[in-house]
Amino acid sequence: MAPGPLSGVRVLDLTWFLAGPYATHLMNVMGAEVIKVESMKRVDNIRLYTPDMQGVAITDPTSVPPEVLCQTPAWQEVNFDKKGLTLNLAHPKARGIILDLVRTCDVMIDNFSAGVLDRRGIGYNDVRRVRPDIIVLSASSSGQFGPQKHYAGLATIFSAQSGLSNMTGYPDLLPTDVRDGMDLRVGTGTCFALMSAVVYRQRTGKGQFIDLAARDVPSVLIGEALMDYFMTGRVHTRDGNKDDIMAPHNCYPCKGKDKWVSIVVNSDEEWKALCQAVGRPEWVDDPRFNDQYRRWKNQDELDRLLGAWTKDYTHYEVMEKLQRVGVAAMPAMNSEEIFNDRHFNEWGAFVEVSHPVIGTRKVIGAPWKFSESEMKMRTHGPMIGEHNEYVFGEVLGLSTKDVRSLVEEQVIV
Amino acid sequence: MMAERALEGLKVLEWGHFVAVPYCGKLLADMGADVLKIEPPDTGDNARQREPYPDNIPNQETSGFFLYLNTSKRGITLDVSTATGKKIFTQLVKQVDVLVEDHTPAELKALGLTYDVLKKVNPQLIMTSLSPFGQTGPYANYNAYALNTNMAGGEGYLLPGGVTDRPPVRPGLFISDYDGGLFGAIATLGAYYGRQAGGPGQHIDMPRVMATVSLTRTALGKYTHSSHLIDSRDGRGPRIGSNMKMKDGYLVVRVSTQAWWELFTDKVMGGPAWTKEPRFHENAERLKRPIEVNEKLLQWSINQPKKEIERKTQAVGIPAGVIATVKDLAEDEHLAARGFFTELDHPRAGKQKYPGVSYIHSETPWAMRSPAPLLGQHNEDVYVRELGYTREQLVKLREAGVI
Question: Of A186, A322, A387, B276, which sits 20 to 30 A from A10 (CA to CA)?
Fold first, then answer.
C-alpha cells in the first residue's frame, strides 16, 4: 500500500475541545503528523469532562493523577496519534519556541478569540515572517471581525445561531439543541477550508490566513431553507421528520423499547413494492395513497397505518423485508447496535486502539477508505506532554540541559 | 485584479443527484475547481423538481434547491446507460482528475463502469464514491435517503433530546447528504494532494452513513470506552438556560457555572429575589430542579426581546445565542458583516441571494463564479468544442436521447 496522501505534512495544533481537534484528526487519518500544544496551566478543557459530557468533573487538573486526564471518552475520540507537548503559551519565552516550531510546520491552527495570538506575538503576521508559506487557520465563534467578533460560543450556541436548532424537532415542542454532531461539523468545515489552502500551496508555494466563524458552519447545511425564505418568504421551521413532498418519510415504532425504523418512499414504484411487502396490495390503488401528492397530503393517516404494521416486527426485520424489495428502510441505531452491526463490521468501520490505562478497545475508524493507501489511526491520544522529548529534542534540536531549564522556568509545563 | 482560486486546475466530473454528490461538487467548484455536471436528459437532476421556486412558480430551471447546490459548475446532459452514452462517459473520465458519484456497487457493475474499468481508461483517476453504505458489506446495495442514513448512523436516535414518546428526528432537512458530500470533498482533496506529490490515483469509498457515524462518534464511542454508556434521547433534555422562550422567539444562555449564573442573574436580569433562595442559589441545588429553574427564568424571559438579551449577555462574557429562524439569519448583522449572503443573477430565476460559507481565505476567497447551469447548457461547449463531435452529430445524439 502507498503511504497516506498527506504523509510529510506537519500540522501545529493549538486548538482545544472538539472542533479544531477533529479537523486535525482527519488530516492525521490521511497521513499528516499533528503536533498538539497543551499546558498544565491550560489543560484542554475536554479532558476535564465527565464521561457522559454533562459537565466539568475536574476543576483542578493538578489535583488528579495525570493519567486521569487522558481517559475522558470524548477527548479520546478526536486526538488519536497526535504528538502531545506541554508549552505555556502565556510565558514570554514560549513565543520563540512556537516560531521555531512553525518553521518546521506546513499548517497552524488555533481556536483562540480574535487577537489573542497577535498579542502574544504568534499571530499570522508574526509566523509568516519565519515561514512565508505557512497556512494559518483561526477558528473562532464569530470570526476575526464584525459587530459580534467578541461573542463567546460553543456547540449549543452554534446550533442555535446557525439556524439548525430551529429546524430540528417538533413544531409543538421546543427547538432541539443538536449537541453531538455540532462540534465535529465545525471540524469538518474547518478541515475542508484547510485542505483547499493546502492544495493551493502545493501548486503555487503560497500560504495564507483563513478566518473561520464556527457559528456559520451549520447554516450552509440548511441552505435550501434559506433559499426558500428569499424566494417565497416562507419561514421553514421544524416539523418532525416531514418532507416537502415525500411520504412515507418518517420513523415508525418497532418491537422493543424505544426501537424505531426509518422508511422513505419517493416514487409510485417504491410505493407498490412497499404495499406488497407489508401485505396490503389494496393500498396501491387506494385513493388516499395512489400517487405521491396524495400520499403526502394524507401522510398522517399513512404514518398511523404503517406504524400499525411495523410495531409487530423488530427494526432489523422491517429493514430486511423492505430492502429486499428495494424500499429505503433503516433502523434508528444506537451505539450498541452500530458496534455489533454486521455491515459496519464487514465494511471495516472499526479499528482497535490501545491505551496505557484504558486498555485496548474497538473504536470508530476512518470515515472513508482509500484503495491504494491505508488510513492512519494507530494509537491513543497523547498523555499530557507525552512527546515533549520528541518535539523539543528531535524536532527542535534542544539539548536536555536546555529543556531542563525551560521546565524550571515554567515555560515547558 | 482577479482573486486567485484555490483549486484552479482541478478537473472534476460530477455524476450524481439530489444533495450529496452535488454538494461535494459545489464545494470544489466554488473554490475554483472545474466541475462538469452530468444530468439525465429531459428531466435532469431530480433536485430540479424540488421547491422552492421564485414566487411559487414551478420550473425545472429555477428550483432554489437545485440552484443553491450547483453554483459554479458547467452542465451537460448524458444518458450513461446507452452504449453511446457510456462511450462518451469514458471519454470524459479520461480528461478529468476526479470522478464523484453516488451509485451502488451493483449499479456500477451493471453499467460496466466500476473503478477497475475506469482505472484502465485513466490510471491516475481519483474516483470518490458516495453511496449510502459503501462498496462492500451486506448493505452495500441498499436503498437509502438522508433520513435513513442519519438514523442508521446513530445521530437520529439521539434527537430530540429528552423526548422519548415520539419518533426520533434527523437534524435539519437533508443533513446526512450534506455531511457525506463534505467528507467526500475532504477525502478528494487529500487524495489529489497525494497524487500531485507523485502518489497514485485512488478509489475513495466514502459511505454517506459513515459521515453520520463519524460525526456522532463522541456519543457512540462511549459504548466501548470504560464507561460503556449507550446514549439515547432519555436524559438529554434541555439544560438550565437553554431554549428560553422570549417575547419574540427563543434564546440559549449558557449558565452552567456558578460564575456565569451569578453574572447573568445580577447583570442581565437585575438580581431578582428568588435567585437568593437556598434552592436556587448554588449550582448543585439548581441541578436538582432544572425544570423549576427554567420555569422561573421563563416568567422573566417571556417579556424580553431575544436579540437585546443576547447582546447584553454576551457583553458580560457569557455565551448566548438567539435560536435563529431563517428570517433571523437573513436579517443578521453578523452574517451581513461577514458577507455571508451574495447575490447572483441566473438567466431564468433572475437575481437571487445565496448563502455563502463560514471561511474567508486571505489569498483564495470563496466565490460563486457562475449560477447553476441550465439543463444541457454546456452540451455544445463540451461535445463539439472539447470532444470534437459535429453539430449534426449533436442533433442526432439529442434525438436519440443519448444527451
Answer: A186
Helix H or strand E segment including B307: helix B306-315
Query: Would you call A293 exposed, middle or buried from its count of C-beta atoms within 10 A (0-12, 13-18, 19+)?
Result: exposed
Q: How far apart (Å, rounded) are the C-alpha atoms in residues B135 and B127? A: 12
- Over residues A321-344, the mean pLDDT reads 98
As a whole number of angstroms, the distance between CA B179 and CA A329 comes to: 20
Q: Examine the pLDDT at A244 and tell me if it is beyond 90.
A: yes
- Tell me the longest C-alpha to C-alpha distance in chain A: 85
C-alpha cell at B104: 451502488
Say if residue A47's pLDDT is above 60: yes
Q: Is-contact B165 B233, C-beta < 8 A?
A: no
Question: Which residues of B fall within a CB distance of 8 Å from A364?
Answer: 213-214, 217, 220-221
What is the SS3 assignment for A307-345?
HHHHCCCCHHHHHHHHHCCCCEEEECCCHHHHHHCHHHH
Cβ burial of A160 (10 Å; 0-12, 13-18, 19+) is: buried
Phi, psi of A221 (to 5 degrees): -85, -5
Q: Grid coordinates in use for A290? A: 395512489
A window 177-216, beta carbon within 8 A of B: 177-181, 183-185, 188-193, 195-200, 202-204, 206-216
> Global pTM?
0.98
Strands B34-39 and B11-15, by their bridges, are parallel
Question: What are the residues whose beta carbons fall under 8 Å from the beta carbon of A274, sequence distance 6 or more?
Answer: A248, A263, A265, A322, A325, A327
Contact between chains at A373 and B210 (C-beta distance less than 8 A): no
CA–CA min distance A40, chain B (Å):
21
Q: Is B216 helix (H, G, I), strand (E, B) or coil?
A: coil
Cell of residue B232, nine digits:
439515547
Helix (H, G, I), strand (E, B) or coil at B194: helix
User: Which residue in this structure is represented by grid cell 508549552?
Assistant: A87
ipTM for the predicted complex comes to 0.98
